[in-house]
Structures are given as C-alpha cells and as structure tokens.
Amino acid sequence: MSHSSTRTGYALGAITILFFGLTALLLSNSWGHPPARQQIALVDKAFLEKTPWRQTYTDLVQAKEDMSDFDCYGCHDKKKPPVLRFDANSILIVPEEHKNIVMGHGSHNRNNLCYNCHNESNLETFQVRDGRELKFADSTQLCGSCHGPNYRDWDAGAHGRINGYWNTSLGEAQKLACANCHDPHAPRIPTHHPAPGPHALRTPITAEYSPVPTH
Amino acid sequence: MITAARQYLIFLQRSARIAFVGDWRYYTWMAVLTAITLLGLNAYAKQLVHGLVVTGMSDEVSWGVYIANFTFLVGVAAAAVMMVIPVYIYDNEELHDLVIFGELLAVAAIIMCLLFVTVDLGRPDRFWHLIPGIGQMNFPNSMLSWDVLVLNGYLLLNVHICGYLIYCRYQNRKPTKWFYIPFVFGAIIWAVSIHTVTAFLYVGLGGRPFWNASIVGPRFLASAFTAGPAIIILALQIIRSVTQYRITDKALLTLRSIVQVSMIINVFLLVCEIFKEFYSGTTHGASAKYLFFGLHGHYALVPWIWTAITFNLIAMVILVLPVSRSLRWLDVACVLSIVGIWIEKGMGLVIPGFIPTPLGAVVDYVPSLNETLVCLGIWAFGLLCYTIFLRMSVPILQGRLTQANEGLPEITEDAPTDTALPRPAAH
Amino acid sequence: MSSPEPTLHSDQPVTGSTDRRSFLRSTAAFAGLSALAASLAPLRELKDFSSSEEFLQKYYKELSPEEMKKVLLRITDEVEHQYGIRPHVRDLKPMDGVEFVYALNLTRCIGCRKCVHACVAENNQSRSPEIQYIRVLKMPHGSMDVEKGNHVYDDKEVPDKGFFYMPVQCQQCKNPPCVKVCPVNATWQEKDGITVIDYDWCIGCRYCEAACPYWARRFNFTKPEIPADRLNPEMAYLGNRPRKQGVMEKCHFCIQRTRVGKYPACLEVCPVGARKFGNILDPESEISYILRTKRVFIQLKEEMGTSPRFFYYFDK
C-alpha cells in the first residue's frame, strides 16, 4: 500500500469523524435562534378614542344629560343682570359659583368681559357684536363673528375634524363644533400626554441619534 | 445524432466521476467546504422558519451582507471575463488557455450571486413570480428584473463557452469559431452589462443620495476589474501548485497590469467621490459622513472603511512599484485589494446607503451569527463548485481525459491529480 | 504545497486496501448525508409557511371574480383558524371619479401619536415586533430637515415649546419609486391614487423599501403577532387583512374604510383636526378647498419628483 493511499485512508477517517461531529453539532441546535419577541405593552385604548374632548350644549341635549348648568335663572334673577367685578389690575374676578371657569380667551386680558359673548339681558342666549341674539346651540356662529378666517375654514371643512363619511352619498359626515375641541372660556388646546413611541426591531431606538434634546 | 448524444453523456458521466476522486488533500478540502456549506444550509433553514428576523437587518437597514456579497460577486463574475479581452482582442497567447479558468470562476461567482439574492428574499417560495410567462416580471421598469435577466444570461453564456471549449478539447478537435467566438464577444459586453445593471440597481434610487450618484457605476467596474483578476491571479497559482498545469509567470504578470491600472482608477474615483461628498457640505453627505467619520455618536462602519482604504492604498503602491513583479509581493497586493474592495463594496456601499434613513434616523447594522453562517456557506459552496469545475476541466485541458481514452481504466480515487491516464497506443 | 509523488496507479490490482478504502468512502459519504439531514432539521418547524392554494394563487389583476371569491374564502378561513374570529374580507375596487389626497396641518398637529396607534388598531399591524405605518417627528421650529427630527420623544406633555410635529406615512406618490422598482409588480398604483401591495404576490426582496424616500414601507421580518381581541375583522384584500412573514406592507389610506366612503382611521382619531382627507376631483371637498386656498403647502422632498398625494400645510 502506497504512502499516498494510507493518507487517503486517514483523511477519509477524519472526514467521517468531521461529518458525524457536524451532525451532532447541528442537532444540538444551539445557535441561530430568533431573538425573543419584545414585550411591548398594548397601547391604552384611551388613545384609540374618537370621541372629542368636550361636549357641546347640543351634544348634552342630545345625550339627555343634566342641563342644570345651563339653567341660568335657576340662580340668577331675570330682571337683574349680574354685575361684573374687577380687581385692582382690572382683571375680572370670577365669582365663587363659576370658579370652574378659567378666563383664558384672548391674550392680554383683551377678552375679559363675560358680556362680550353672553347676553346680560338674557343669560340663556349669546349676543353677537352686530346685535344679534343667538341660542346656545348656535355657538359656532358666535365664534365665527370674531374668528372670520377660522370660521370660513371650518365651514369649508378645513378647520376642525369631520368623522364618518367623506362621501356623503354613502353615509353621514359628523362635523364637530368649535366647542367640541375648544373651551370657549380658554380656547387654547391644552397639552396632552402623548401615546408611546416606536420600538425598533434591532438597536433600541434611543433619542441619542437626534440632536434635538428631549425633556 | 443519437451517437453524438451518447458520446456527450459519456463525457458528462466521466467528468462527473472524476469530481469524486482525488488524493487526500482533495478529499479534505472538499469535506471542509461541504461542512461549511452544511453549516450555511442549516442557518438558512433556520432563517426560512423564523424569517429574516434571524439576520441583523431591520426596516431601517433593509439590506445587509447578503446584498453586499452579491454586489461584490457580480464584480468578480464580470471581471473574470476581463482575461478574455487580451486573449481575443490582443491575441495574447500566454493567457489563451487560462481563459477557461476565468470563465469557470465567472460561472461559480454567478451561482453564488443567485444564491445570495435568493437567501435575501422574504418569500423564496414565490420565486416563480419572477419568471416571465407564468409570473409577472416588471421589465423594463425594475432594475432588479434586468439584473435577473442579465445574470442568468451571463451564466448561460459562460456555461456555453466553457462547456463547448472543454468538450472540443475532450474530443481533441478544433472548436468551430462561429460557434463560440460570437459568444465570447457577447460575454465581454455582457460582463460590463451585469455590473452596470447591478450598479444601476442602486444608482436609480433617488431617495438614497449616497447611491444616487453617477460615479457608482464606473466605481463598480473599476473595483471589479481590480478584485476579479486579483482573485484569478491567486487561483491560478493554486491551480499551478496542485495540478502542475502549465501556467507561466508571464500570464500572471499580464493580469498584474490589469489589476494595476484598475486599482489606480478605482482609487482615483474614490477620491472624486470623497471630494464631492465632503467639499460641498450639503446634507446629502450624511451617509458618507456616517461611513467615514461617524454620525451622531454612531461609528459602526468607520473602522471598516478606513481598513478598506488603507488596504487599497497599500495595494496600489505595491502594484505600481516594480516589486510587484515578484509573485510574493503581487500576492500580498492581490489579497489586500480583494479584502479592501470587499469591504468597500459591501459594508462601504450597501450599508451606509441606508444610514441615516430617509427620515433621518441613525440605526447601526451588525450582521448576526446566523446571517454570517449563511454567507460563509454560500462562499464555501461557490468554492466547492469552482473546485469541481477545475477538477473536471484540468485533466481534459491537460489531455489526460479524452474521448480517445474512453473505456480504458480511469483515474483512480487516490491518484495524485497530475498522474496521466494511460495514453492510447495509437492515435 | 508539496508535489505528489508520480506513482502510476492505473493498473493497481484489487486488494484489501481498496476494499477498506471503499468502505471508508461509504462511511464518509454516509456521515456526510447524516450531516445534510441534520442541517435541514430546523425545517421541521416550518408550519403554515404557504398552503398549496396560496402558493399557486394567481396575480391579483389576473384573478377572475370567481377565483377572487375562493381566495377571499381561503383568507377568511385562515384568519378564523388563527384568531378564532370570522372576519369580513372584501375585495374593494376603486370608485369612479375619485382620487384621494391627504393634507396635514402642521400648525395644528400636537404630536400626540394617537394617529399612529389608531392606524395599528385599524390595519391589524403586528404588535411585536412592532410595525407602524406612521412615524411622528418632533422637529425644532424653523427647519424641515428630517435629520433634525426626534422619533422617540417621550415628553410628559405635548406639544413642547419651540417644536412642531410632523407625522410621516406613505405619501401615495403620483410617481411612486416603489412601484417602479418592484421586480414582480406586487405593488402598483390604483386609479384612485392608492399604491397597494398584493401581500400574496410579494417576494420580499425589499427593493421598494430601499427605494422609498419617505421610509414608508415595512417588512414582516417574522410572523406578525396580533392579539385576537384587538383584531379588526372588517378587512380588505389589498388593505388590512393580516399579513404573512416575509412580505412588505404600508399605509394604504385605509382602503377598507375609504373605498366604502369613510374617512381613514388616523384622521378620525386626531384630536386637533390636523388631518384632512378627501376626493381631489370633487371641487367641493374640503381637500380641494385646502389646496385651493392655503398659500403654503409642502410635498415632502419635492425635489425627488415623486409628486406625493400627501400635503403638509400651515394655517399661520
């Protein structure tokens, strides 16, 4: 037997061992497993809510809610318009009975007078600057009397939200009123807690790649 | 007709048989390659079950080392044919017989390319959707459909040329010129096209400014014509040492001049690119900034690219100096340029194109173990194919395996590969 | 390497050593085959990868109405089998005379991310790993450079002073790069302007993901996971039916809603009415009004020539 064929024999033996070893290694299945699925908490269903933040007078009527808040003459005297009082800085003092109202409409206290909107001679209606009297249900027209461009946009559907059907021949479009989103006494949209941010598949996304600091 | 078919089948059977015989070195080499291939196959089976989640890719960096290797190997395949140009256009006799080794390398590289694309698919079971006729091929809009066409076409061209020339040699007759010369010229043009199309795959994406640059195509070709012949220089030396097939130093030095010129052009184009990305200072340079210097505290690719550039520069200097006329230095330069270009085109071209994402996020990419095993498996399989191709063709080219010695005792299993088969008494 | 000794073996007699070698070769081959089998062992776990019906299913545009019925039935059964809920799966076609356009008011958006999660809930996106079609960027005032955006802000309260918020989702381009690059036509633009994906045709090459300048496309890197109690059973073939591992998905303007006349889910949940959607071919629609009257509106990365159907605009 030649030198070379002895070597071949050894090589074949080694190869057999290599392949059997490989078989055992592969069957041990000890690598290449997928990373464990991240435990991501399901989002709070509150974030999926479509109902607007606020209910308007009309909503409350439709929902048959307690309307006693709108029964002005349950407390006030029909013949005596309430007198407004101001502090030393000419800032309106909100009476104790209405302390839930935050006066925040307009900057620099320029809209600091209840009767800019409420009708002093009939508290259950609004008064517009042009002298018209409006029902509570028609509050959008009252807002529009000052906020012309926004009212125009809202009227065209460009300001505020419309839910339901974009194609009104197939279903109803539900248009929200100003007061569904804006508190008439403090119309600026309040800040909110945001829904959770994204979870990346790999390197957890951190804010570090962003030059914008988070607070 | 039937006799011709019968003869061809005998040829195939004899060459297949010889792929399974060799000496102990051959067996060991093949066994090691098979073992690595199986590790890769195993890793791919896991990927098939669990999805691409077992790789390091993500929605942010949605292509990784699979496509990087694919891009590199398209270059190798294209460049293998570059040996053909001196032979058929400039009638370089030294390289004449070596062309087949180059084309066989191209075949092996294309097989690897197709495998790398396949393992990158999320739904390989739907591969048939690509086949025109039964599927839907988005041709000519999608550059990927172009790529599928040109790669397969190139594979067929090279299989035809090699197969035909080897079979003629087996039958000991002169090849009919019209039956292969047109294909040879076709393959030369096709070689440029496969790499250009692959470059266009990236260049066509307007949303990725790092790729959307016209220099990518020329750079692809320059780097391919460096790395491809460099691989062939190394392969030829290995063939020479294990088979005693006559390969002259002059042939290797002819290839050296191809590598030399390509490397100079490659480095020049790199300089052009770096200048464009950094001098203008536009925000479109973010990917290049990430690649070369890191971005927002992420430096994953910085060591890679500087290694690549260092290797390429050293290789260029060696290649330009007369020292590279000595094979030892030439080998060093070849290894450096292969590694350098692999990094540059893989980690350096594919990955930074994704970073930052079109929405500005910087997410690093690191290939996973499983992904790396799949890559190694495909490389091992490619080498396995190339070894088998050489094992079949070398005895035929040496005239040890011919139609004339059909029926005579075959090369036995442990015969050293250079042993001649008994020659027929009368020719 | 040493050169092998030039021995002639051609007429070597059959000896015991040859027998032993052929035995050794057989064992080596057997060992190799066992390693091959072992390497394929993980495939045992390959379950419901692709049913034969799904595997052989034709391209969406080539399905006859009867074939589509069968496909919808198969999907219905699969969903019921997996989630225990029988869904209502439809193949909704685009309406005539309708081209959808979206507009987002950057003056209004407060960055609350409600749209992100409403979208996930509506469109049956995977919860882990997480797939979301909308990414909200927190941007410093004065810049539209997305690289300055923060994706992961976790402020207690939004909006934060000095920042604006820019939600980005599929821009439903008129000239979509993703459609152009898809090698198998698995994604295309419908006549109402929505770029859709046939999840049963996609091969998962992710070329579209690389092509999209808005990072709008998502890939199912593994089998998606949706808790059964959060599954939305109102489904569309090109819309929110559950996806499989290895395919792409993205925002489709809530096809299952918008093609029956409803607003998309992200719009309906927006607390500030920053999101506007409608038919641009209808001059009376709010979307037509916005594009007619607002002075500044932006197509993100306009220079890409993608011509998005998604506009960003400002009130003041």
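Chain A touches chain B through 28 residues (CB under 8 Å).
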